[in-house]
Specification:
Helix content: 25-40%
Low-confidence stretches: 1-18, 313-317
Mean pLDDT: 86
Number of helices: 10
Number of domains: 2
Oligomer: single chain
Order of helices and strands: HHHHHHHEHEEHHEEEEEE
Number of strands: 9
Shape: globular
Strand content: 5-15%
Structural class: alpha+beta
């Protein structure tokens, strides 16, 4: 298979009965809200975050390994867990009215399957959704697979985003504040996993090519944007893909300084983000062995689009 969560032991404020606060296409909102309250371990935001990660809400999505539809079900999994969500007499993996409720049902089934595993129940459920219940039980929690660990981290971060809901897009002043904050970080080294709301930090191990940021104090691409917008009073989730999901897409000709620039083949596979400064340039933390810098928008060939972060309170800076 490819904001409101509670920690283990907390009351289920982020689960059953929670309101949807993530950006979801209008035609899917009621489906997410209804299906997202199926069991205590699942919330509307969690379900929305999972589908954002899996398909970017593309009902025609198909992965190279054969996962299908908005919920990215493998055919064998669909055969066992797919349901007729809209009551039309068919179980259609390509129909969001069937696939979205089926995703929620499958999550709840997995949650029961790993309910006795130590640790955070929602994290274990997400890990099992990605790697299988057997792996979670074998390792007593999230298994030591980089893909699964990143999967759980990304969905959890996105699901926690903007718990207040009802936010407006960043103002022009907030965009300029973010640009200015990023500009003050020019020359800081790239660090995989580095950067937070307070500024540069040591990173983590490891990039897809095995590079570690553990000994480098700096920023990766989404760490820089998270920091810059924290200075503008806006809290962004941690990864580039989740930052796109938490922002409002804008057309290139309507982009303003401060808007985020995203790169990747699809919404669910965004791999890079920068801060647009105008004139065909952005500020970004490109990759290992580079520094925060001004880069041309065409410095990468897979520009996906522009988006404007959401501000929970639309706070003026």
């Amino acid at each position: 298979m490819g904001s409101l969560l509670t920690a283990a032991g907390d009351s289920p404020a982020g689960a059953a009965g929670a309101a949807l606060s993530l950006a979801v296409p209008a035609n899917y909102q009621s489906l997410i809200e209804d299906a997202g309250n199926r069991c205590p371990e699942v919330s509307p935001n969690l379900l929305a975050a999972l589908i954002t990660q899996e398909s970017g809400f593309n009902p025609k999505a198909q992965s190279p390994v054969g996962a299908q539809g908005i919920g990215q079900f493998m055919p064998s999994t669909w055969e066992t867990h797919g349901i007729d969500g809209n009551g039309d007499g068919k179980r259609d993996v390509w129909d969001p009215e069937d696939a979205i409720p089926s995703s929620a049902k499958y999550l709840c089934t997995i949650a029961k399957d790993v309910q006795d595993v130590p640790g955070d129940k929602q994290s274990n459920m997400l890990a099992a959704y990605n790697a299988g219940s057997g792996a979670v039980r074998k390792y007593g929690g999230i298994p030591p697979y980089k893909e699964t660990q990143n999967y759980v981290r990304s969905i959890t971060s996105l699901a926690k985003h903007n718990p207040g809901g009802g936010g407006k897009n960043a103002t022009a002043d907030q965009g300029v504040t973010a640009v200015n904050a990023a500009q003050k970080m020019l020359g800081k080294p790239y660090s995989w996993g580095g950067g937070n709301a307070s500024g540069p930090s040591t990173g983590i191990c490891c990039t897809p090519k095995g590079r570690s940021g553990e000994s480098i104090t700096g920023f990766d691409c989404s760490g820089l944007t998270l920091y810059a917008y924290a200075k503008a009073g806006i809290s962004l989730p941690r990864t580039a893909a989740s930052q796109y999901a938490a922002s409002e897409p804008v057309k290139r000709e309507q982009a303003k300084p401060g808007d985020l620039v995203f790169y990747g083949p699809s919404a669910s596979k965004i791999h890079h983000v920068g801060i647009y400064v105008g004139g065909g340039y952005m500020i970004d933390a490109p990759r290992p062995d580079t520094k925060v810098r001004f880069s041309p928008l065409n410095s990468m060939s897979d520009l996906f689009g522009f988006a404007r972060p959401a501000s929970p309170n639309n706070k003026e800076i």
